[in-house]
Write a structure and sequence with these properties.
seven-stranded mixed sheet, 628 residues, single chain, six-stranded mixed sheet, alpha/beta
Amino acid sequence: MKSKVTGLILAGGRGTRMGRVDKGLQPFRGTTLVEHVMRRLAPQAAGIVINANRNLPQYQAVAGEAPVLPDYLDGFEGPLAGLQIGLQYCPTELLLTAPCDSPFLPPDLAERLHAAMLEQDADVALAVTMESEDGGEPQPQLHPVFALLKASLLPQLDAYLATGARRMESWYKSLRVAEVMFDDADAFRNINTLAELQQHERAPAPAPAAPAGEPAADAMPVAEAQRIICERMTPVAATETLPLRAALDRVLAEDIVSPINVPAYDNSAMDGYALRGADLPAAGAPEVTFKVIGIAYAGRPCTQTPQAGECIRIMTGAAIPPGCDSVLPQELAAHIGADTVTIAHGAIRPGANRRFAGEDLKAGGVALAKGKILRPADLGLVASLGIGEVAVQRKLRVAFFSTGDELRSLGDSLDEGCVYDSNRYTLFGMLTRLGCEIIDMGIVRDDPAALEAALREASAQADAIITSGGVSEGAADYTRDILARIGDVAFWKLAMRPGRPLAFGQIRTEAGSAWLFGLPGNPVAVMVSFYMFARPALLRMMGAQSTLPMMQARCTEAIRKRPGRTEYQRGIISAGASGEPQVRLTGAQGSGILRSMTEANCIVVLREAQASVAAGEMVDVLLFDGLV
């Protein structure tokens, strides 16, 4: 069903009751109203489209690659105008609509509306709740903006709008409508005024119970967060040309095209004897003795052409002599004389041990593709082509700092209740290994003005900013409020452990802009969050593709886990008795136990829907080799 549905978020109104502000972009619980609705709709639809008539660049920044479409009709003509543009765009059979000011919509909205549509052979399915006014008897309340419609209804809607009519209820009366009763009326609440927005900001979210195996409604699944980050990241544009030796670990900005064939000529893969395959002894024939008439060395070819019963002594890498097409390795000869070699039937096949010109690379072919991180073998390959300089992406500039009044730098006295800042050192190591140009901004106090100043300074210097601490629900965590003023946030809470609080967004100031990764403060959570989210994003900004070295191993012990979130446990992988990989945990898995990371050589990845693991079961394992 999901593949048939496109989600439409209606954000094209004037926001009159909210003081004519743009409702969808209003800050709410660490992000914006429209992003809350996107989160709820995304698992229910194949794609999302936003209808907005103001602040289109801001909506596009939120939407990523999803389209943002203004009304086809001029003049803020209401929800039907938004529905019209949604139906015009809709690439699927069905369109699911929801307003931008309803951040608590049910996670099963599409599923239940679709079931009713099929059962009643309807054109549209609408949500209904029981509502009471002034303590009276509850009455059915129709919610026409929470609807599932057939995309084929566009001609009927166009004709209706052409009459000048604009009321949704009146248009729906001309269609076959299925009404679907929902018990949770709060899920369909509209936030219409700034007072209501502030009231909901302070109150607990009316999050409906998630289906078994699903994450909590206010926490984004790991895969969805990774998708959002991936969609927003683009490589930096600047490049530079470097001598080959200076390009190690840099990212290629252009394809390396081979100017020559590699190898440049047919050559021998073995030390032995070059001959004509047609002269090899046939089945049942006696051994054949060849006369050696010359010798070919690598770099000193032999130009003699052997005749029947003749061969050329040849060394590895030497050019195949004229007329020859096969090489007998010297260890397979039946007998070697002073100037003869004897061969038995079946020692080799015709054409054996001959490397063809261009077998490795053909002239004009791509030797290394753009986006490749240059490793030692790549330098050798480029050198084999006679190329001495390569174009690479410029180094990514990353600023990082820790937040917290309790943090102290190395060399400072450790007051009671304080700790030494370890996160900057792990971040330094991880960013250095990644090949970034790093800007260490030290420790920033738990003070809004200091934090905003640090973010502004960092955005003026860097392509990306990584912070540790300051993104949880604590009263001293100001990052969210600051981002609402000088940037945007895509998400705050993830359905994962460790690392539930994590901010991703963009800082935009007059001096520049930078992507922000607000990592948790606990040391292990910092590392796990970096590997899962920041590292692949930074590689993408560098123009490189990120693949993590994942494998499977048999668990030697039971691991407790509840479904609904992804967990990353520190483990030690080794070879079992039969030689297959096995893994055990390092012990206590608290997110502040940094020692568990130093002892581990892998992370055990327990997927979102996965429950407890029994001893002997296979689990996914992320190897640390090349990471920590």
